[in-house]
Model the fold of this input.
Amino acid sequence: MANVVRFGVSIEERLLERFDALIAEKAYVNRSEALRDLIRASLVEEQWEKGEGEVVGTVTLVYDHHASDLAERLTESQHSHHKEIVSTLHVHLDAHNCLEVVVLRGAAAQLKHIADGLIGTKGVKHGKFVATTTGELG
Amino acid sequence: MANVVRFGVSIEERLLERFDALIAEKAYVNRSEALRDLIRASLVEEQWEKGEGEVVGTVTLVYDHHASDLAERLTESQHSHHKEIVSTLHVHLDAHNCLEVVVLRGAAAQLKHIADGLIGTKGVKHGKFVATTTGELG
Amino acid sequence: MANVVRFGVSIEERLLERFDALIAEKAYVNRSEALRDLIRASLVEEQWEKGEGEVVGTVTLVYDHHASDLAERLTESQHSHHKEIVSTLHVHLDAHNCLEVVVLRGAAAQLKHIADGLIGTKGVKHGKFVATTTGELG
Amino acid sequence: MANVVRFGVSIEERLLERFDALIAEKAYVNRSEALRDLIRASLVEEQWEKGEGEVVGTVTLVYDHHASDLAERLTESQHSHHKEIVSTLHVHLDAHNCLEVVVLRGAAAQLKHIADGLIGTKGVKHGKFVATTTGELG
Done:
């Protein structure tokens, strides 16, 4: 496991009380865990803003699989980016609607481009891209 | 399929030219498709802000599966919400790190609560919640 | 001044190194300052999500003051909410375009409603709402 | 005034009904106005993502003016960027807290850097940056 260090934080008592209430509500086990999450989130945001290094992202798509050959076009589009597309989860929401989550890995700009293409595919009702990390952040 | 209608939009010529350039870049097939996406995105946002009706969401988690019993705790937490948790996709990022995407369905507030619990689990390095729709938006 | 306390945080060494690089780049004076900012930002987000208590927000508007009686309509709309609208800053961007920043204070839902009204006013080119705090967060 | 053109949009009837309900609630005068706002917002987002051209932004800061020489440090920092800082609005929230909105204009990356510096200043409780436009979007 990673080498763990310890440092001290100065904070106004009232601010700490409010933070403790928030982390209790969010079910964090302790302050360190909650702060590490805030720290990692700010690093992931920075990494994506700068477009540096290898990153991981997910695209959530909702669409009607009855729309003319949409499922086929999405599959084809995913295959043409097989190097970046790691895996896909498909959920049948009802008789018409599907939810698909596509996991991508590669350079930030390239992932953003593939995600735009999937979300912009005719017939896709809603699409959202999430930028995350390969996990090498401590 | 849904009943399709048509209406006219007035717009400054220069603004339309710039929008056309943007949708070409994002690979939309035409303006209607791009505008329907903008419209649906604003409806999904509103639906989540108001917390109305049944919604769908995904949670993206990155974690080290070597962290003491984390995978087990995540699985248990997901089982205790089996009514809302529809499906889970698991990807092995490297020898240590996993990416998990959890698909949720139910009332907005309840989904947000479950997502907070998963993201706040000790050992989860990065977590993001995406609000989407059951697809019943036209 | 507020009563200041101190507590310890455990963190992976590599994660701390990367956070130190980020806060150096963002010109924070020390880790405590950077962490207090992350903590307050998460509290402000929570406060707005729950719609609790008195909050403060700003609306940034860009519009062409030549658009028929727009400036007048914006002023009137602001006067009809004089209880919530604290102050307004007006900047002349060029011969046509104005930027206006409106500071609001009151209940979250009410501020959101006023902001929607201002942003949706015919002729406003771009509008953005920022949720902040009355400052009573430690 | 700008040259106005007109084009047709095809859309599912149910989706249009829901959009009409949303724009009524947000007090838009008609669909064209609402759609132009969605279009401009997507262009502004793109412009900032790419970091192209001259842009405008606002920084909202909340701080305690009793914090040692904070107001002075903020003023100094603003003066050292007088070329980009257009104007500042100051509001007295209570006996301790101030809200300050700073309007910036220049290259995207430079504005982001100045905003980071202001938000990261020791004693600033909450800060948010808003990216907007010079208004030259139609």
